[in-house]
Amino acid sequence: MAYFRPPGPAPDPQLVREFTQLQDQLRNQVRLAPPAGELRYIAGCDSSFPTPDTVLSVFVVLELPSLGFIEKVYHVGPVPLPYIPGLLSFREAPNLLRAYAKLRRQPDIIMVDGHGIAHPRRMGIAAHLGVELDVPTFGVAKQRLTGLYEEPALTKGSITPLTDKSGELLGQVIRSKDKVKPLFVSPGHLCDQATATRLTLACLRGYKLPEPTRLADHWAEEFKKEL
């Protein structure tokens, strides 16, 4: 996701406490398991900030396994709160939920440009959206937020585990294209690591990003031109 990180004073400690408590409540609702039923449609989502006060959120829906394009939607709204490290989902999720409500074809699973449980409190944007929507989700992020890993081999499809200091598996580090920086893939909600990894690899079409999030990012740039 394209993050806008404005300079300014530290966030209000009371606000941080309130959202951290809410995040803990949401985390208790996360369920990691293979998705139930057939996965026929996959969505990708992304958010960007055309201005410091505006967030634009995009969903695209593709058919599996062909990745045939089904639809795209977007929603533009006000930024609800300042950037707070570790609490990004509260900044982006409300507008993403409004964009999701515009879809005619409901996806069976959502690939989110961001983290699932590979988050300091195991509650990244993919987990947050999954709980809010009660839909299977997983995260595909371009940068590590937390965890330890060894660099995977430079060839496409190489994978290493992402773990915490105790060895708990948080996600997998996947080389999506030869000699490019890897992706950080983790389950969000109603999804397991095996499914997240399998779909990430299945959605690669020669680019670093898998098609659902790549197209969401592409259309975010296109929709900006309409604003």
UniProtKB/TrEMBL annotation:
Superkingdom as given in the UniProt entry: Bacteria
Entry-linked InterPro entries: Endonuclease-V (IPR007581)
Cell membrane is among the record's keywords: no
One Pfam family named in its UniProt record: Endonuclease_5
CDD domains xrefs: Endonuclease_V (cd06559)
EC number(s) recorded for this UniProt protein: 3.1.21.7
Site (Interaction with target DNA): 83
UniProt main location, coarse: cytoplasm
Cofactors that this protein relies on: Mg(2+)
PANTHER family assigned: ENDONUCLEASE V
Protein function: DNA repair enzyme involved in the repair of deaminated bases. Selectively cleaves double-stranded DNA at the second phosphodiester bond 3' to a deoxyinosine leaving behind the intact lesion on the nicked DNA.
Name of this chain's protein: Endonuclease V
Organism from which the protein derives: Hymenobacter psychrophilus
Native organism taxonomy: Bacteria, Pseudomonadati, Bacteroidota, Cytophagia, Cytophagales
Gene name tied to this protein: nfi
